Structures are given as structure tokens and as C-alpha cells.
Amino acid sequence: MLRKADNWHPDSTVIIGEPQSETIDFETLLAAARRQLRFVFTCAMGGLLLGLAYLQAEVPLYRSTTRILIDKNQPPVVMQLMENGTSTQLNPMMVSQVELLRSDRIGLKVVDSLGLAADQSFLSAPYSLLVGLKRSVIELVQSSISSSEETAPSVKSAGPGGPDRRRQAFGILAENLVVNRVGDSYILQIDFWSPNPEMAQKIAGKYADIYLSDQLVAKNEAITRARSALMEELEDVRKRSVEAELAVHKFRSDNALTNVRLVTTLRQLELDASSLKSQYQQLLEHYQATLQNQSLALTEARVISQAPLPGTPSFPSNSLTLAICVALGGLVGTGLAGVREYRERFFRTSSQVRNELGLETLGMIPLLEGKPVRREKRDGTAGNPSFIEVANSAYNWVEQNRRSEFAEAMRTVKVAVDVELQGKTTKTIGVVSCLPGEGKSLVSSNLAIMLAMQRHTTMLIDADIHNPGLSPMLASGWERGFAEMLAGDFNPGDLLVHQSLPLVFLPGANRNQQTLPRPVQSIESTAEFLFDVGAKFNYVVVDLPPIAPVADARSLAQHLDAVVLVIEWGSTARQFVRESVDNNLFLRDKCIGVLLNKVDMKKIKRYQKFGSAEFYSSRYSQYYQG
């Protein structure tokens, strides 16, 4: 049965009885990807353009790198002077060296050594686009504040090498200095970024030099402190040794050594003197070795990789930046495409019509190729016509394009009507839409002309008395029509006749009429008219008013045999159509199918799943040519 799916329920948005898979529908995802591919690609290209603009505006930075080895294989004397635990606690020691390189102690020495506090080109160099913008905003705010506080006492500004500029220069160094440990090794890597390659090389190399000098100074200070401690200890041992020798000589001279106890005491004094003398000799040797090693400029660190002069900018990386921008543009496009798909609430495919409304799609009417030809304007004041005169070529499109998709859709409607209404001599067909402008009047005109072209006697009625769409296009200056018929004042002369086809047309209400006949509200007279006059025709096509704005379509539908619903493709919301149809029981019961109008045949394939009939529409497009 063409009317509706047997397993459809009005409160359901799907067809009952079909298995509802909980898995991902990859066909739907692929169809969505086909639809949104161009949009995502456009967003990715937008990201590429933004990346190119960023590369043009961003300040290129050069990186110079130097590496320092913390050498733990020093001579034994130097190793003995190292603080306890530094040779066994590698990680804390290396972290301490990294922090030392980042400290004010080293940074300010670099500033003073290179004279950066007085180098305006260094202080004002834009290190990045964002930093440059931030600096400009800060300077603008500061200038506005200083101009507004003219009465404030003046403050002496720092000179070219003042503390403020030293701190400013050190801040720039700290922001662009990167110090890292290379893996788990004893190597420290110093990177400095600058818009000037020579400056990057100078600063990176100077950091290494200052660090080594600082290490040497610290080592010498440690040795000096150790030497001073050794001298004090050596002097103390020497004094004690001399005192012990004197005590031995004095004891011998004062005693005859005939007593055993006296001999034992003497031996003890001699042993103490010998021990102190031996200790003194060891400390003296240690002290002499310290004096020898102090003259050797030994440190624990040495440069193993000098800072080179960078030849090309290290930041930004053109390829990486463009790749990231394209990826971000694609991600943004994918997100927006998901939002677009979520907001896609219109009818696009016949399966959507079946699932949402429980009705079959009788055809898809494409957007008419070329601009329809309009003739003179019909204003309803040109007299009393007797013949149908088409004022717009779109309203007799099937007559001019008999093998078009439009004509095939009209023939499909006829077949559906004949199958549904078998045995009826006169078949009354209503054409309706939910909203104005969806193309119901265009469909009504072409359906009637197609029926007449098959030599069926046909009557076309413009039943939209509020906003007639057919009458201005088919009747030249009509004055009477459907409104008078409803008022019981029908005259056969109100019917317009086609000059070559068995087709007559009953116009709607004239827009220039100030008032309509009072009995217009009595739509019941339509049944009598269709029974008396319509019985003389094989087909009666009625252009009904839209469902939503007025109630006329509901009243007229009960006197018709079948109704065709016209929906504008990609324009009318599915929920609105479903609610409109569900609220009109007569319309639902008599609706034999849906026509999707104004279909973009180039885009329709994007909304079809692989294997559907519409997916292969291009394969049989030649049947509609000619």
C-alpha cells in the first residue's frame, strides 16, 4: 500500500519492527562525511591562510646552543676538597647547576659583561608578535597615565646603565634563556633565542664563559678556605709537637731514670712527640700539594660545544606552523560540521520521509534549470478571460519538458492515485503544503497539465482563497471563481479553458475584491460542487491552502479522494511537518504520498547512504534528458 508504512506508529520517529541496532551506523557517518567534507576542507584552508598570515606577522627567532660538561674525573687532591655528598648525589647536583645558570648571579654578570643594559636595540627588540603587542599596550597605558599626572612630582629616571635597565635586560634574558640537562648525562645545554642571530650567539657563549669563570672563582675560594684551615691545623700540630719534644728533654734532665715508673713515663712522652711529629709531616705534605694545585685553574665544568652563529630562524617553523594551523582548522571545521549535522532537521531523503511521517515519497522535483520565463503581470483587472494563459513557464514545465524528472514525478503521482482509487470514475486530488512558498501551486498546475496531456479530462481548482497562487499565473484578469462557488453563485462561464488540452481551470478569489461573499465560511458546499460539476471530469486537481496558517485545508480535505503533500527540500523542519500532519486526521488518512520539491540534484547524493536508490540517481539521469 502506497499510503503509509504498515509498521509506522504516529508517536514514533522510526518504523516499528525494524531492528534497532545499538552499533554505530557507519553508512550514516560516511554520508555525513561526504556532506561536510567540503566545509571541513574550507575550514582547513582557512587555518592555512591564518597560518600564512601569522608567519608573515611573527618575528623570526634564532637559537644558538652551547653545551657544558660537568667533569667529575678530577685529580684526587681536588676531589678531596669537594663538599661531601656531591659525587654521590648526581641529580640534586645537576639540578643545582641548572638553577645556578638561571640565577641572577650569572644573568646580571652577562648583562654587565655585554653592556646589555645600555643596548637599546636589545631592550626594545620584539621577541614575538604577542610580546610586541603586549609591550605596545603597556607603553600606551603608561604614556596616558604619565600625561594625566602632570602635577605629580618628577622622579629621576635611571640612566643608561641604571638598576632598572639592568633588571629589564636580565628579565629579557630570563624569558629567552633555556637551560636543560641532556638526558641523564653530565651535560648541560644552554639555548638562547633572539631576533638577532649575532646576539643569540654572543649571549649563549657569554653564559658559558661566565658560568665557567664563576665555577673557577668558587673553586679557588674553596681551596683558599681549605688552605687557611690547613695552615691553622698545621700550626697547632707544630706547636704541640714542639711542646712534646721539650717535655721529653726536660723530663730526662730532671730525673735520673732509675725508677721503672719514670722510664715508662718517658717512653710515653717520646711516643706522643713522635706521633705529633708524624701528623705534622702529613699535614705539611697536604698543604704543599694544595699550594701546587691552586695554581692550576681546574674546574668541574668545561665547554664541549661552542655556540654557533645560527643561519636560519629556529622559530617559527614554517612547515610545522602551517601543519598545526591546517590541523586546527580541520578540527574546528569538524566540530562545526558536527554542529551543522546536529542542526540538520529538514527532509533530505525518502527514508527520512518514511521514518518521520510513515508516508512514501512519490518523487523528487529538482530545482528548475534556467530561469522560468515570466510574461506580463497578472493583476486581476484585465477583463473577463475565457482561456488559460500561462504567465510563467514553470507552471507548464511538464508540457515543455516531457522527459524531465519533474514530468516523471507527476506521472508517479498519477500511478499512485490510480492504484489507490481503483474503480472510481472521477478522482479528486488535493495538493497541499505545510507552509506557503513550498511549491504546491506549481505542482498542482503541472499535475493537471500532465493529466490533460494524457487526454484525461481534467479540472484544476485554485482553492486558496486567502492567497491564490495559481490564478495570477493562469488567468488574465479574472473576477469570479472559487469564492463565488462557495457562496452558491457558480457560473459555468467562470471556468477557463485550455486551448489545446482537455483542461479547465476555476480561479480563486480575486485579490482586488474588498470583501468576499458571506457564505465563504461554508466549505461544505464544495462537496456538492465536486459531485455535480466535478463528476464530468476524469480528474479534479485542487490547489489547497497551506495547513499551518488557515483551517480551510482541513475542511476541504474530507471532500477529496486523495491528498499529495508537497515539502520543500532542505527548508521545512521535520518536526513541524510531522506535527502538522498528525494534527490533521483527514489529511493523514487521505495522503497517498509526499513530493519533495526544489531538490538540488547535485547535493542529494551527499545525503544518501551507499546502495540507496537516490545514490545511483546519476546512473539513470539520461532517461530524463530531452
From TrEMBL:
- Which SUPFAM superfamilies does its entry note? P-loop containing nucleoside triphosphate hydrolases
**What Gene3D superfamilies has UniProt attached to this entry?**
P-loop containing nucleotide triphosphate hydrolases
Picking any one GO molecular function of the record gives:
ATP binding
Domain Polysaccharide chain length determinant N-terminal, chain residue ranges per copy: 22-114
The residue ranges of the Tyrosine-protein kinase G-rich domain are 266-341
Could you tell me which CDD domains the record lists for this protein? BY-kinase
**InterPro entries with a match to the protein in the record:** Bact_polysacc_biosynth/exp, GNVR, LPS_length_determ_N, P-loop_NTPase, Wzc-like_C, YlxH/NBP35
Instruction: Report if keyword Lyase is assigned.
Output: no
Name-wise, this protein is P-loop NTPase
